[in-house]
Structure formats: structure tokens, C-alpha cells
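Hi W., the magnesium ion complex you wanted:
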Amino acid sequence: MAATVITGRTRPTKVKKQANVQKRKRDDVDVEKLEQAVTELDLQNGSYKDFTDLPLSDPTKQGLKASHFAVMTDIQAKAIPLALKGHDILGAAKTGSGKTLSFIIPVLENLYRLQHIGADAGLGALIISPTRELAIQIFDVLCKLGRHGHMFAAGLVIGGKSLDAEKQALTRMNILVGTPGRILQHLSQTVAFNVDDLKMLVLDEADRILDMGFQRDVDAIIDYLPKERQTMLFSATQSRKVSDLARLSLQDPEYVSVHAEDKSATPKSLTQNYIICPLEDKMDTLWSFIQASKKSKILCFFSSAKVVRFVYESFRHMQPGIPLLHIHGRQKQGARLDTTAKFSAAKASCLFATDVAARGLDFPAVDFVIQVDCPEDVDTYIHRVGRTARYNREGRGVIFLAPSEEEGMLQRLEAKKVPVEIINVRQKKKQSIKSQLVHMCFKDPALKYLAQKAFITYAKSVYLQKDKDIFKLKEYDFEAFAASLGLPGAPKIRFLKDDDGKKKKQASRQTLEVSGSSEENEGEENKKEKPVRTKVARMFERQNQDVFADHYKNLVTHGEDEEAFRSADAFLGGKSAIPADDDDFMAVKRRIPADGEVSDDDDDEDEPKTGGRIINLQGASQPLVIDSNRREKLLKSKKKLLKLKDKGHKIVFDDDGNAHEMYELEDEDDFKAKGLPEAQRQKFIETAKEVVREADVEDKAAQKMKKKDKLRKRKDRERNEAEKVVDEDGEDVEEDAVGFGGVDEDLLANFRADADFSDQDGEEAPTKKPKKWFQSDSEGEDEGRGSKKRKKVRKSKRDVIEPQTLEDMESLAAGLLG
Ligand code: ADP
Ligand code: MG
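Structure:
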């Protein structure tokens, strides 16, 4: 065997070393046994009910026990055995049915059996979540389960924090949880982030991650990952779209859908109702509901961040008697985390949220989910309402539907097996806050501004909704809605106005049609009576006619202004469609003949009709009319004259020195001889594609080489530096080592404090870089020799490092700079 790399790490104490060796031996046996048991798992059996029925490693078992997880949920019982065997999985199960453990356990177990541990192993599993909050939650579950003896280094990358600090720690990670954007950022920017050996990819809330919003990021991430890997997708609304499966290159995926046969797509313990609530009553109804449920934990969903802010700010002013919170994507990361933590811990609280909180979040014991604004589709409805009634607990969902939304939404809900029942609001209990809101908006311009923004974004969201069977823009009473927010009138919105305009147009057309068919004669008369409206006529109908008239006055010549105006007046008055004297109206100060226009009198060519002279500029297709001082001056400026000249065109010369146009049309016969145009086009596309494909392969190979080279260089550098550091202070690095997987506290500052899963039960402290830096068993025998050798090397290194002369110092500085 090649000589072991001597590093700066000093020899472990004898006791520690023996313990390490023993543990490794135990692990080896453990892994072999587990591997055997996993291959023997009977997937048809279905008798695996408890976690203890599965061949799991001790650390995982400990983790499950500590979290009091004993009996598996349906999705866990089906998905975990398959995942342990390495299958690709499409997991679908209702909200709150334990999907998180269905992928966390296989991630830990499969990497454990592969002993994919330590900094040199690189990234083994990547878990992607659509939102930061969900990523944090997944990471917490991972830590809770993994901290009882597992040695993986796990990290969380969700953006909103310093990229550089994350970069350093990333290179040592074995398991990473993150959001698509940030993961991609690291993949493209962090040179030493090695994913070449990735074994597992997990997408939680997969349908959301695979939809349009994340498409580009996810596709780019997939490009970086090796094709040979296990891929698992989980969601309560899992799709089996072939295109998605192809994008992720899934191999014979197992579709695990445990509730497909159920009567409803939502949890059994969830009671679902809807109320009919016109837009203008929403605020009153919501306020009254909150007043009646002050002791509950309520989560309210709205269509946009602006609406959330307005409702939060206005309700807060009115002191509702229950702690209010709000969360939306436009908040800073710190505020978002703070809110989720507060709402999780609260007994009674009301959280106003956008759909950032719709997916995956496991707030304990939410009593009500109120969907104040109708969700864009049933999937969103299912996820929103799924924040309550989790893991067999009771919960209630209420959705506010405008009268025009009722029919469409109910149809959609029924089609997806979501049972909802109508309930009525007790009118006696209903309070009106309209006047209070008006008063508040009047007094506080900031609140009024928020109300306006809320109104506009709400109207916009309805306008942009795809499902027009539910969202019928024309049916909402926006004026009344604006008033209900405390606004004196509805802010003007283009598309609402357009719609009005369209309505008017349609209406007038309809009346014309109607009159045309039933009272044809009358219609004809109407048409006759109406003067013809030309473009010019419309121009003169402008509101600010005075301005236009002044300008117009300057345009007319020979003191014929009055007459021209008279004709314009007549024009505007609609008495006559065309001015009495057309020439007068058009008699302008200067006139440049249009293309191809031939002068009546050839002799007079150089003389403009209204005075001045005409100059034929060389290189200009149009003659230049000099009829003012400004034009005279123009003649003196070469630069300005250039603008009037036609632009030259580029010609190319062939080898014989003959000039050609840049692009010359091919001879028609030659072109025809080559075949049909379509065939030629195809051929061209094929060849171009081939060229691009070849270039792409080369580029990719070059890029890969470059990346590997950089990675190698960086590792060498890091290793050298590590050696130097230890050599210089001569201390045992192992003493400073924290956690497993070699992630020290500083680097982890960016990750969660509990990111390291170091054994808390007092077993031996794991070493910093376990695999590589460990001595092999055979080394132990010639320990004396080894240590001597090490000393020698260290000595020789120190000889070089200790600077004696200026030159030494310079070379040392150059070395440190790398
Ligand atoms: P999903 O992802 O399916 O919406 P989660 O994984 O978030 O659901 O789990 C919902 C809740 O159920 C969590 O609070 C979790 O702790 C709990 N849970 C999951 N599996 C079990 C289990 N086997 N036994 C007890 N509780 C569980
Ligand atoms: Mg989940």
C-alpha cells in the first residue's frame, strides 16, 4: 500500500485510537449485516408496521426512539423499504401524513451503509425544498434524527446569509438541505463544492419545485448532478407527468400513493367549510371571525404580500385582543424566521400569510385555516388547508368565496375529491369595521397607501388568474371592495378601465346590431346622421385643444389663419366632415416632396413653392430644402449634413479583387438544383445542430476538467496550509475538532447551531476529518517508524518555513498567498 499521507494531525492518544479502531470494526460488521438485511427486505410483505421492523442502523434507531416515533404511518411503511433498497420514488400522501421521515430515514441509512461520511466523501444527498421555512424544518428533523450517533456533516443553504462563509463549510458537507436558488448559486460559484459523487436527490413538495417558477434553477441543478443516483419526489399533490420524470432522469420509479383510493384528498380529521362572502364583506367577516375565536390558533391566507400587510396593519391598529403575526416573501429572512418560531410556539395567535406558508410547514396544533382570498387552484387549496389537522389531529378549514367564485371553485374541489360544506355567518355576531377603516385611512396616509396597494394587487391577481371559470373579473364589485378597505374610491387600474371600455364598445356594437336587425331603417338613419370621424377629427377632439390650436396657428401661412381656423371650427362642430377649402387647411410653411412625387413644373424644380431653395446633396436621395435660417446653418455643419445623407453599405472583395455585396442572393436555378427549400432548411438545421452539439461536448469536457483542476489545486493548498498551521504551533488539531465531519463552529455559524450530529451520549468525540486523517490499522504496528518519519518531515518543513533571510521571508509570503 502506498505510504499514508502525513498530515498535520498528531497521533491520537492510545485509548482514543483503540476506541476508534474498535468502533470502525463494529461499524464494518454493522454495515455488512444491514446490507444483508436490506437485500432480504420483502417488499410484497406489507407487514412492516413499526420502525423496529426495518433494518435500520443503531444511530437512526436511537434518533427515532428519542423523538418517540414508533409506529410508521402508511406512506412511511410503503416508501421507506423501497427507498432503502435504492429505488427511485414518487411518493404521494395527504398533508401531515409523515412524508418527511419517509425520505430522511432512507437518506441517513443509505449513506450510512455506503459509509459516505467525512469531508473527503463529498456531497452524498441533496434535499431541495421550495421555501426557506420548509428547508429549515426539514433540516431540524434531520438533525433531531441524526444527532444520536451519525457522523455525517449536514448543512442548510437557504439564502439571506453570507455566501462566503457558506462556501467554506459546503465543501465538507455530506447532506445538504436547501432552496433551489441558493443551491444553484453554490453549484455555479463554489469551486470546491463537489457533487460528482452524489448518491441521492430528494425533492420535497416536488410538484411545486418542478413547476414553472423553479424550472430554470432546477434544470440547471440537475445538469450538475451525476445521472447515476437515487431520486425521490414527495408531495401531497404528486404529479406523474412524464416530462417531469424525464427531466429528472428517473429510473423505473415506484409510484407510492397511499391515499389514492380514499374518498377525500384531504385528511379525515379535517372539517372543511365555505362561506359566501362578497369582496366588500371580507374585512368585516374576517374581523368578526377573529373576534369570535380569540383563544384559537388561526392561519389566514391571502393572495399577495400587500394584502397581508394591509390587513395586518389595519387589524393591529384596532387591537383585536389576539396576538397578530404576518409572513410573506417580501419580508427579511430574520423576520420570517421569527414569525414562524413565534407562531409555532403560540397557543392562541392569528397569522396572516401568503402562499409562502402554504406548503409543508408543520405548525403544531393549528385550529383554523381561513382562506380569505380564493386560491389559484385546488392543489394550493389542499396545501393551505393542510396546515391544520396534521398527523391525525383535528382541524378546521374555512374558505371565503365570492358569489361569482362559488360555482367554479366547488366544481374544481369536487373533481379533486375535496369535500366542503357551506355554512352561514351568524349575522348577529357580525361586526362592521368599515367606518373604522375609513377613519383610519383618512387619518393615516401610510395606511391609505397600503390599502391602495392592497386593492391594486388584489385586482391584479384576479385579473392574472388562469382559471377564468372561477375568477370572473367582471363579476366583482371593485368600487364596493375599495370602500370596504377604507378608500374613498377605487384606484384607477388600466385593465379594469380597459374592461369598461371594452364593455362600452361591445355594448354600442350590440345596440347597433340589435337596432340593425330589428329596426333596420332606424339604424340606417342613425348611421346617416352620424358624421364620419376621421383620424384628424379625433385629433381635434382632444381635451387640450388650445395647445394644439396654438401650434396649428404657427403652422399656417400667408395670414390665412383665420380662415383655416374657421374651417377647423366647423370641422370640430361636426357641421361638415371636410373643411371648406382643403388647400387652405393644409397650407403649411414648408414642404418636402414625398418619394416619387413629380413636380408639375419641371423648370421650377429648384424653387420651392413657398420660397427658399432646394439643394441636391451628394449621396442623399432626397433634395434638401433651405427655407429658414436654421436650415442655412445646417449647410455649414458637415456632421449634421452627414445625417441627411444615405448610409453607405458594406461591400466585400473576393480573392480576385472584385467587389461584392455582403449578402448576395443565390442564382434561382442553383438554389432549386439543391432540392426543396424545406429539405435544405432541415439539412442546414441538422448540420448546425451537429456543430453545436460537438462544441457543447467539448465545452462541457473542458469545463469539467477546469473544475476538477481547481478543486484539486484548492485541496492541495488547503492541505498544505493545514500542515503548516500545525507545524508552526505544534499542537494537536484534534483537540479543537468539533462535531463530526470536521465542520468547525465558525464555519457552521452560518448553518444551524445543532448542525453537527456529534454523539451526545458521551461516546468518543469524532475526529475532525475522520476517514482520510485516520491511520490505517497496519500503521499502528510500525507506529514508531511512522512517528519518526513524521517528525522528520515536519522538521524538514519547519526548516523551510522558518525565515532566516529576506529571501526566505519573501518565499514564505509567496507560499502563503498560494
Ligand atoms: P407531511 O410532510 O406528510 O405533510 P410531516 O412529515 O411534516 O408530514 O409530518 C407531520 C407530523 O407528523 C409531524 O409533526 C411529524 O412529527 C409527525 N409524524 C410523522 N411521522 C410520525 C410517526 N411515525 N409517528 C408519530 N408522528 C409522526
Ligand atoms: Mg412535508
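The CA atoms of residues 353 and 666 lie 64 Å apart.

W.
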